[in-house]
C-alpha cells in the first residue's frame, strides 16, 4: 500500500509555472518562424533544439549558462550525427547501435558535468528520431534551425535569471564521479539502450527508438527503487498519454493547430515533470507524437500502437537490468564502505 500511496504523491510546487512558461516560449517562437516559412519539415529541429531550455532549471546564472550551452552543443552533435545517418539511409539496427553509444557517452557527460535533468534521454531521443527520418531536409537547413533555437533558449535562460520577477527556482548542486564510476554508469545506459533497441526491432512495432528512450529514462533515476518506480511511472503515464494522443490526432488537426498543441503540451509537461513523472508523461507523450506528425505524418493507429508497445519493452528492459545488477551494486557499495 505504501508503494501505491507513493505513486500518487505529488511533489511540492516550486514556481514550476515560470520555468514551464520559459521552456514553452523556447519552442513556440522557433516553431512559429519555421511554420511561417512553410517549412514544417524543420519543425522537429526547432523542437529538439528547444530541449536546451529544459536543463539547469534551478541553477545560478553562471551554472545555467554553462550547462545549457553545453547541453545544447551535445544536442546539436546528436542531431548532426542523426541527420548524417538519415541522409545515408542507414538500417534500423545501425541506428540502435549508434544510439546505444550516444546513450552511454551522453550519460557519462551528463554525470560528469552534473546536468539536471540527469541521463541521456534527450540526446538519444534527438539522435534516433532524426536518424529515422525517411526524407530528411538538407543538413544546412536542419542544423541552422536547431542551432538558432539552442542559442535562443540559452538567451531565455539568461533573461529569466537577470530580469526582475522572472527567476524560476533555486540553485541545485551538481555531482562528481570517479572514472570507474563514470564507466560503470555509462555501461548501464549502453546495455539498456542496446537491449531495448534490438528488442524493439524484433517486436515489429516500429520506432524502436522509443523503447531505447523509455529504458534509459528509467535508469536515469539515482538508485534501484527509484529506477523501478520511474519505469512504472513511464508505462502508466505513456499509456494515458497515448490515449490523449489518439483523441488529439483523431480529429486530424492541420499543421498550425498541431503546432499550438505542441506548445501547450510542452508547458503542461514541464509543469508536472518534477512534481509527478507519470502525470507529466500524459502530456509529454502526445507532445512527442505530435512533433513526429508535424515533420513526418503517419497513420494515427500505427503511431500510438508503436509508442505503447515500445515503451513497455523499454521499461521492462530497464527493470530487468536493475534487478540483475542490484547484487553487483550492493557488493560494490559494501566494498567501498569497508575501505573507508
What can you tell me about this protein's structure?
There is one protein chain. The chain is built from 13 helices and no strands. With 340 residues, it is mostly helical. The chain has one domain. It starts with a helix and ends with a helix. Mean pLDDT is 89; it is low at 169-174.
Number of DSSP helical runs: 13
Which structural class is indicated by helix and strand composition? mainly alpha
Main sheet characteristics:
none
Proportion of beta-strand residues? under 5%
How many separate structural domains?
A: 1
Number of strands: 0
What's the alpha carbon Rg, rounded to whole Å? 19 Å
Q: Estimate the global geometry from the Cα principal axes.
A: globular
In a nutshell, what does this entry contain?
The chain has helices at 2-7, 16-36, 43-49, 61-88, 92-113, 121-131, 139-162, 179-203, 208-218, 224-250, 255-272, 277-295, 300-339. It has 340 residues and is an all-alpha fold.
Features:
76% helix; 13 helices; 340 residues; mainly alpha
Question: How are the SSEs placed, and which strands pair?
Answer:
Blueprint lengths: L1 H6 L8 H21 L6 H7 L11 H28 L3 H22 L7 H11 L7 H24 L16 H25 L4 H11 L5 H27 L4 H18 L4 H19 L4 H40 L1
Helix pairs in contact: 2-3, 2-7, 2-11, 3-7, 4-5, 4-6, 4-7, 5-6, 5-8, 5-9, 6-9, 8-9, 8-13, 9-10, 9-13, 10-12, 10-13, 11-12
Amino acid at each position: 500500500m505504501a508503494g501505491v500511496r507513493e505513486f500518487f504523491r505529488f511533489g511540492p510546487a516550486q514556481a514550476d509555472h515560470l520555468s514551464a512558461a520559459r521552456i514553452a516560449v523556447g519552442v513556440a517562437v522557433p516553431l512559429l518562424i519555421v511554420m511561417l516559412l512553410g517549412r514544417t519539415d524543420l519543425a522537429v529541429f526547432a523542437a529538439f533544439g528547444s530541449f536546451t531550455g529544459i536543463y539547469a532549471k534551478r541553477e545560478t546564472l553562471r551554472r545555467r549558462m554553462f550547462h545549457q550551452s553545453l547541453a545544447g552543443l551535445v544536442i546539436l552533435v546528436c542531431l548532426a550525427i542523426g541527420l548524417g545517418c538519415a541522409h545515408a539511409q542507414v538500417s534500423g539496427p545501425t541506428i540502435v547501435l549508434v544510439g546505444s553509444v550516444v546513450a552511454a557517452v551522453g550519460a557519462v557527460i551528463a554525470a560528469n558535468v552534473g546536468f539536471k535533468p540527469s541521463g541521456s534521454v534527450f540526446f538519444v531521443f534527438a539522435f534516433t528520431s532524426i536518424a529515422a527520418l525517411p526524407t530528411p531536409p538538407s543538413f544546412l537547413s536542419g542544423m541552422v534551425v536547431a542551432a538558432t533555437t539552442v542559442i535562443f533558449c540559452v538567451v531565455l535562460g539568461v533573461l529569466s535569471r537577470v530580469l526582475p520577477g522572472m527567476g524560476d527556482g533555486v540553485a541545485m548542486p551538481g555531482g562528481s564521479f570517479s572514472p570507474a564510476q563514470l564507466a560503470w554508469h555509462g555501461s548501464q545506459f549502453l546495455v539498456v539502450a542496446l537491449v531495448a533497441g534490438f528488442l524493439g526491432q524484433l517486436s515489429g512495432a516500429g520506432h524502436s527508438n522509443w523503447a531505447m528512450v523509455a529504458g534509459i529514462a528509467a535508469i536515469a533515476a539515482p538508485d534501484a527503487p527509484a529506477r523501478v518506480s520511474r519505469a512504472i511511472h513511464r508505462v502508466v503515464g505513456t499509456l494515458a498519454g497515448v490515449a490523449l494522443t489518439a483523441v488529439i490526432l483523431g480529429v486530424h488537426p492541420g499543421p498550425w493547430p498541431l503546432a499550438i498543441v505542441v506548445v501547450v503540451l510542452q508547458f503542461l509537461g514541464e509543469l508536472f515533470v518534477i512534481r509527478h513523472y507519470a502525470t507529466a508523461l500524459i502530456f509529454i507523450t502526445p507532445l512527442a507524437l505530435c512533433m513526429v506528425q508535424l515533420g513526418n505524418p503517419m497513420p494515427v493507429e500505427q503511431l500510438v500502437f508503436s509508442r505503447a508497445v515500445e515503451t513497455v519493452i523499454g521499461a521492462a528492459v530497464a527493470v530487468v537490468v536493475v534487478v540483475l545488477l542490484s547484487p553487483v551494486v550492493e557488493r560494490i557499495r559494501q566494498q567501498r564502505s569497508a575501505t573507508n
